Amino acid sequence: MANIQFYMTPGSCSTGIHVLLEEVEDVFEVTVVNLPAGDQFKPDYVAINPKSTIPTLVRRDGTALTEVPAIAFWLARTHPRAGLWPQDAEREARLIEAMAYMAATVHGQGFARIFATATFARNPADHPAVQALGRDIVRQGFAVLAAALGDKPYLDDGFCAADPILFYLEFWADKLGMALPEAIAGHYRRMLARPAVQRVLREEGYNLATLGNVAILGAEAAAAMA
Ligand SMILES: N[C@@H](CCC(=O)N[C@@H](CS)C(=O)NCC(=O)O)C(=O)O
What we know:
Elements: E1 4-8, H1 14-23, E2 28-32, H2 43-48, E3 56-58, E4 64-66, H3 68-78, H4 89-115, H5 127-149, H6 163-176, H7 182-192, H8 195-203, H9 219-225
Parallel strand pairs: 1-2
Antiparallel strand pairs: 1-3, 3-4
Helix pairs in contact: 1-3, 1-6, 1-8, 4-5, 4-6, 6-7
The chain binds glutathione (GSH).
The site of glutathione (GSH) has 12 residues, from loops.
């Protein structure tokens, strides 16, 4: 039987799916899609994923699955022994709520304005304002997600399929030098300590020693008031 084929780009949103593939301990083969070189628009890739996005997972039956939340859900449900998806409707709904918000709003509306600015405004003179709005959306997003986390170490009762999605957002914030709410910084550090995450980051070419040193949002103000 063919292995799962994973189409990814190092350091992109596919890193979240890469972490999940390692966490569920399945066998998969990687194809790197070079986004800056335009590989996503080449006919061979468009035939697999007409949206020209990564990640794409081609399953053992040959069908392609796209969209980070859908792939995360599918990996969790098809690997029940990993225990990454809850059984009761309320917890399931909360994870879908978080995954949809992270992918569509924090990534699609926020980080996309920062990393793919030209897709939001043709005029380069508008780009600083578009990026500033992107940062505002990201900051608001992390505040919402910090409230969803509360005192919990992970988004569900334990580590679950939605956590690697939060991780790739945190990883991007770290690379941009953005301060994070304390609950989000704690989640990021917990994720960085997971062996699967460390394996993925090494495979994707990152030096772990340079990651995780994020400033805590509001810490300076709190210290000044103490
Ligand atoms: N909604 C999609 C978004 C995927 C997406 O935007 N991926 C980016 C990389 S993080 C991409 O493929 N960009 C294509 C490009 O830059 O042309 C998902 O959740 O999978």
